[in-house]
Amino acid sequence: MRIPTTDLPCIIAGELNLQRKQVNATIKLLDDGATVPFIARYRKEQTLDLDETQVRAIQLRLESLRDFLKRREFVVEQIRDAGALTPELAERIEHTLDSATLEDIYLPFKPKRRTRAEMAREKGLEPLARMIMAQNASGLQTIARKFVGKDKVSSINEALAGACDIMAEWMSENEKARNLVRSRYQRSAVLTSRFNKKAENTADDIYRNYYDYSQPLRQVASHRYLAVRRGEAEGILKVDISINDDEMIERLGRFFVKPVATDESAEFVMNAVRDAYRRLIRPSIETEIAAAAKEKADMGAIELFSDNLRQRLMAPPMFGKRVMGIDPGFKSGCKVVCLDAQGRFLAYEIIYPNAPVNDLHGATYTICSMVDNLRVDVIAVGSGTAGRETEKFLRNLRFPRRVQICSVSEDGASVYSASELAREEFPDLDLTVRGAVSIGRRLLDPLAELVKIEPKSIGVGQYQHDVNQDKLQQALDNTVESCVNSVGVNVNTASRALLGYVSGIGPALARYIVDFRNENGPFKSRQELLNVPRLGEKAFQQCAGFLRIPGAKNPLDNTAIHPERYELVEQMAKDLRTSVGQLKASDINIANYLDKSTGEATLRMIVEELEKPGRDPRGEAESTQFDEGITSIHSLHPGMEVTGKVNNITAFGAFVDLGIKENGLIHVSQLSDAFVSNPLEVVRIDQTVRVRVLDVDYDRGRIALTLKGMTPPANP
């Protein structure tokens, strides 16, 4: 039985291998304004325990299908207005969910530009084209003479050429012909790239591998496709996607030339076939195939970027520590700030421990005094320019108290320091000082600080400027939203940027919450959120479970237990003859509370929250100490074993910070003795690894590393 193409729940359920009632429930919740995090955590009874990934997949496919249906309605209206919508055609359109098929159906009815075929029609040559296309006439020269002198046709050759233009357009609009070419491209297309000689003086060495490159398109890895297209955009490469043209023309000839055709008409039809293929069909299908390959490559790059971003955002925090943040520098000095355990700015200094000043004595006095007077627990050193030198200076100091030293990625710190949010937070501080604050806060709470920066600036992407920007932004926003809500947010300390990602809030409402907090003091209970202007019952329902209030009168306000379940928890406490604050998870028998509205998944979540109120799903922070003898790329040679920190993961491998200017690369083939298709199976962002140097290209600044034969890193 054919599923109606308007039955979206059934289509989505089949594609995602889910139950229809799960999809139905999810769509209803989404249409009612519920967010993905809220549905995944607090509506498990309705969705039958769908997780966030499944709910998000339903949401994205639903949006895609609805967009397609809008396009389909438009196509139907256009064909109807042209007076060409037959019942058979309407049924075909109604039962397609393929964009390429829909556009092929629409193509003959599309408003046309002033094409060669259109100009030939204006000269009255369409009847001649029909006679030739029928392929049963002889003496075409004689027939064509009848059209000369009429409507600006000056010769027999012009008449026949115009008729061929019209036939070529008909052929290019033939759905079966287009599918023949499309199928051949999908099976046999070859991607080739070669060096563009016109770019000889501006050629970038990074594209050397693609100066004479050829591979079947379906086997091309996403990162290679994006690299080739970037080289093309920069004018360094010439790129082509091709099939065997002669073979394809012969195949189309067999399709269009009738067995009973006269020799003369067959020759004209074959000429039209060649023209249709080379001038119209091939460029159109090649563009379509290239777009499909680009979309596939984009999806791979965006998915990897999202995974990397999630790992960077979910890096373990260092709560309760007083932090010194240092933005390193040479001539301009190192900007030093101190922050309290809540990330509030305490003090600022500038030191010059590095060349050319080399004020080691003054820098030592300043750092040790600040550590002592402000009770600093940990020092965060930016990983950029002069980071390694500054860290080495710090590790040689004898501090007045125990201090931990950590290298912190400073990608995007300059973006934050120049932002409106940074100016609001620190109107009296210089840009460079704000950057040091950002570095320090990233150690305290990476998630809370990094949400202030556009995800594309965090430095964990692959070809992020080459992929579809709208889809990239959507995916990254979804990732940030997922991370923020999985951790939870302290409503009394969170920035406007962080609150904006909480389920049901958004940027505008986040500003109202912060303004209300500033005017009225900290929130004492979740219920007080309803006093915030424009925060109604619906928004409260969506956001309340993700907001935390440490020290609230009701201890449940500092857990992920939603207020709509407070009554249930109170009943549990009552049944055990204790208070909510003294309720022990181990004493609760969840079987006693199962009913139609409260499932096992919800009850287990409640029990877990009662076991560890306000728990943080992130692990413990890990510090990497680089090898002291490695000061530059020239310190490395094949066979050496060195310590590094993974700072980016791509489809072709993982980049490793070795504490020097250049990053090393562990190619995907060098990640494990066993075959690895996805680097994320072996390593994670910010993970400390012990690697062996395979090769060093000093001139090009490239370092090849391997994990083979080394102690495997902890499970990522």
Architecture of the domain at 116-305, according to CATH?
Answer: Orthogonal Bundle
Structural class: alpha/beta
The CATH homology group name of the domain at 116-305 = Tex N-terminal region-like
Helix content: 40-55%
Task: Kindly report the oligomeric state of this protein.
Answer: single chain
- Beta strand count: 15
CATH topology of the domain at 116-305: Tex N-terminal region-like
Taking the sheet with the most strands, its summary is: 5 strands, mixed
How does the overall form come out from the CA principal axes?
Answer: globular
Rounded to the nearest angstrom, the radius of gyration is 33 Å
Number of helices: 27
The termini sit apart by 45 Å
Please state roughly what percent of the residues sit in beta strands, choosing from under 5%, 5-15%, 15-25%, 25-35%, 35-45% or over 45%.
5-15%
CATH class of the domain at 116-305: Mainly Alpha
**Uncertain ranges:** none
Side by side, the strands of the main sheet go: 6-5-4-7-8
What does the average pLDDT come to? 92
Give the helices and strands, then pairings:
Layout: H1 8-16, H2 20-31, H3 36-42, H4 44-47, H5 52-81, H6 87-94, H7 99-106, H8 116-122, H9 126-134, H10 140-145, H11 156-172, H12 175-188, E1 190-195, E2 212-216, H13 222-233, E3 237-242, H14 245-256, H15 263-313, E4 323-327, E5 334-339, E6 345-351, H16 360-373, E7 378-382, H17 387-395, E8 404-408, H18 413-417, H19 420-425, H20 431-444, H21 446-450, H22 469-487, E9 489-490, H23 496-499, H24 506-520, H25 537-543, E10 547-548, H26 566-575, H27 600-611, E11 641-650, E12 653-657, E13 663-667, E14 688-697, E15 702-706
Parallel strand pairs: 4-7, 7-8, 9-10, 13-15
Antiparallel strand pairs: 1-2, 1-3, 4-5, 5-6, 11-12, 11-14, 12-13, 14-15
Helix pairs in contact: 1-2, 1-5, 2-5, 3-5, 5-7, 8-11, 9-11, 11-15, 12-14, 12-15, 13-15, 14-15, 15-22
